Amino acid sequence: MAGAAAAGMETTRTEEQGVVHHRLESCAFERGLAVASYSFRKKLPYRPAALQLTDLCYDRKGGRLWASEPEDRLTLVQQNQDGERFEVILPDTRPFQRWRVTSGSYENAFGHDSVRAGSVPFHYDRPATKQLNWEHTGTQLDGDVSLYGYVFETQSPASDMASDFVIYVSGNDYWAHVRGREKKHRGREVPIIQFEGDLHFSGKSSGKAVLRNTTETAREGRGELQLSVGDDGEITGSGVLSLANARLAGADPDDWQTTTWEIRKLVGHLVGGDGQQFTALAIAEGQTVDHDGFVNPVHASITISGYSKKLLERWGEAVAAPRE
Description:
This protein is mainly β. It folds into two domains: about 5-150, no CATH class; about 160-315, Beta Barrel (Porin). The protein contains one helix and 18 strands. It has one helix at about 310-320, and strands at about 10-15, 20-25, 30-40, 50-60, 65, 75-80, 85, 100-105, 120-125, 145-150, 165-175, 195-200, 205-215, 220-230, 235-245, 255-270, 275-290, 295-310. A hairpin with a 3-residue loop joins β12 and β13.
């Protein structure tokens, strides 16, 4: 069963600002971080999705994953230039029913074979199935679980970090589809969170960025992000994101009007071995106010990617170069 891989290497549960983070002390394979999302099938009373953070230790060759939701039965079923797909192949199951891991390729980043990524996307999905008697698939909570985040091969120390970065921020509100915390599902517009900005690290350890909205559905978008980098290259931080709907007329009462997200916990890593890239995940809470004044709680995850300006220049030159 899932979990055998974790023998002798279990995660330690920590909690800060109301956010659970399952930590691993060490890893001999690819390291990483993921948001564990738990969905609950019970209709009454409604129970919204719950989010936790977990460290990852990913053994691709051995088909093993150490995390808060571990797995040791992964079989490689697909491989191409974009990445790999693993499945837990049980009797009488079809591919769409199987627990599966997808992970990106470090090579061919951004669609060009001369660009190497410091981290790659990671997704582990555990669907409930008839073969498992429709039992919930999570072990930390009594819901169905999926993990998404990133893995990396090398972590840079803060001493190697570049000073100037361009950062990209995107978010997903797991409660956006439900109006408030009621049974009524929202059938109208919900916020799309996308920001970018410049980040300068002063003293090689801390930096602050003022972010600008990059979506067409919002106006007056503003974000602030503060990051600190430990000596070993692990990143912590805080921040606030806010948006106003760009629609000026013709909105439905339950369309969103404004949204504000406040980061409760942020964890990331300086990845790639040369201090030119970082990736981070965050859990945020806040509120979205509809046009009729109804207030919806926000419970969201945020993905943050940073690339040094020098690295982006090199990548741009590589992508623009003619292929032989």
